[in-house]
Amino acid sequence: MNSRKVFRIAWEGLTRNKVRSLLTMLGVIIGVAAVIIMVSVSAGTEATIAEQIQGLGTNLVFIQEGFSRMGPGEKQTGSGLTMEDAEAIKENITGVSGVVVEQNSSETVKYSGTSMDEVSILGTTVDFPEVRDMTIAEGRYFSQTELDRKTKVAVLGATLAEELFGDGTAVGQMITVGTVKMTVIGVMEEKGSTGGVDYNSNVFIPITVSFTKFNYDPFARMTGNRVRMIYVAVENEEDIEDTIYQIELLLAKRHDVSLDSLDFTATTQDDIIETQESTTAAFRSLLGWVAGVSLLVGGIGIMNIMLVSVTERTREIGIRQSVGATPSDIRWQFLTEALLLSLVGGLIGVASGIGGAKIFGALGDMRTVVSMSSVFIAFSSAAAVGVFFGYYPANKAAQLDPIEALRHE
Amino acid sequence: MTKKTIIKILDLTKIYGLGDIQVRALDNVNLTVTEGEFVAIMGPSGSGKSTLMNILGCLDRPTEGKYYLAGEDVSELDKVQLATIRNKKLGFIFQSYNLLPRVSALENVMLPLLYDSMQDISGEEQHDRALKSLEAVGLAERVQHQPHELSGGQSQRVAIARALVNEPVLILADEPTGNLDTKSSVEILSILTKLHGEGRTIVMVTHEDDIASFAQRIIRFRDGRIDYDKPNGHKPVHLYKKEVDHEL
Ligand SMILES: Nc1ncnc2c1ncn2[C@@H]1O[C@H](COP(=O)(O)OP(=O)(O)OP(=O)(O)O)[C@@H](O)[C@H]1O
Ligand SMILES: [Mg+2]
């Protein structure tokens, strides 16, 4: 019998019972869609990380308060990271091209009639544009003198400047940040979001102003100039490990702690990416398992229904055998039915998987990237599932004895 | 001109059950049927009629003995070869019609052609041959009907059309009128008589003398053996004759 005839017989067998065929496919549809959506989620996460690598560069050292290297039972001593630590690094460590300290807060920003709520106010130091690879579009960034004197000056992100001033000039205008009046001295060049942070809507001010005017952190308030994180840009990427060691030595001495029990951690961008990547890898393999199991369940569903179908259609099989269908004709009929179920189910699954990934990406704040390879893998595993789980019922059908099959009610 | 031998069975035995309880459904049966014969097989229930028909129809194999169908030894063939013989040389009519449900009469009749792997008959030719077959049993008007839209008599006529469509050397009918009323039975018998008139070889099982009286030769079974085998001396029963005349 040629394949076209086999296909026709199988197709007619399935369309005679449309609802059941559809329900049978459901397992495969869900399985395939799950594979595609889950892979798209983890691919999206990876793409975000890739952007972080590009956005931040690999020459940064992050120093943050941390107790990760402290033994059990030990208590935090010292006063954490301070502005002075940052200044000490800048002065004493060689091969450092910039040190940045950041403090975040959120304020209402007003200019004449326009008022914007919850604008990110970023208190930083003068090296910020260089370390974060940002350029000034108009005016200038604040100077060390302005930082030391706590001058109330502000540099605006491109989007924010546009929203506040439209086409008019921003530089030289007075804005109100919270309750503090500040002079706009510069506007940043527009920059794509780095590491999920969009700097285009920020106000950049001297961190000293931030400490005195916008300091809501109770710890920081007590200590006055405590910071959460110090960014150090290294001139030469190869020297980064050596620089970290020097920083550790310096800060250990300043904090009066031993090298074995540092009260801070100094990590590189690579370390952070590595941690995140191992997290996504674990996430991805978990998702892979979940998706694989759902495909397996879909396959078992097909086998289950095919077995029921073979029993139900025993007489049909007997009739076909009586007019000359060979065991292989019968086997091919049921195998093709199973394959059609899984292929059509797979196609619907691919469509709903791609659609679902798009909807996920649009609704949630999760990023999704549909990869062709995941579509291909999901679809071909669906086909494999169909053949694998269809074979047993098909073989059972093929082995039926014609007389007994005909006698079956 | 000597006629061809269609069925030749030699010392045919069929034993069911391989355990302690063995049933000799057929016990040393010898039988020859030549081309163009219309044979009725009779006998009490359990005497082995269906067992014989299943072996003649290549649905089953004998335990012992030989079966030559149109000169070919089919008693030693495997499942695949038997399927091919059923497809090319045999037409089977069952008591319970055995049509595929939810499939039109036409497609039911086309079924044997679909499984003809030797010739790979085109869809168009399958269609034409099935249509001709349905015309031969007077069902040209009902080709698109599904089994549940047909009466018992009509269903059995579709089954006859299906048995004819592959131009078999032998038509086997196991109690073809067993589920039918008198009027439909007469219809079926008149078709079989017509086919016999055209030179076809028919073996039919029946319990009823009236039905058997349409055949040329009557073989009676008892306990798996041939009780007697003789030409039918009677003309078809008068009662039926009338109705047949009326119908035709
Ligand atoms: N598959 C089987 N397994 C065991 N015994 C069987 C089987 N098929 C038939 N038999 C036995 O073989 C004997 C002959 O059965 P068969 O069906 O040939 O009778 P029959 O003449 O067709 O009867 P009926 O007129 O009732 O149809 C019976 O005793 C029956 O019980
Ligand atoms: Mg019987």
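^ adenosine-5'-triphosphate complex. The longest helix of chain B spans residues 182-197. The two ends of chain B are 32 Å apart (CA to CA).
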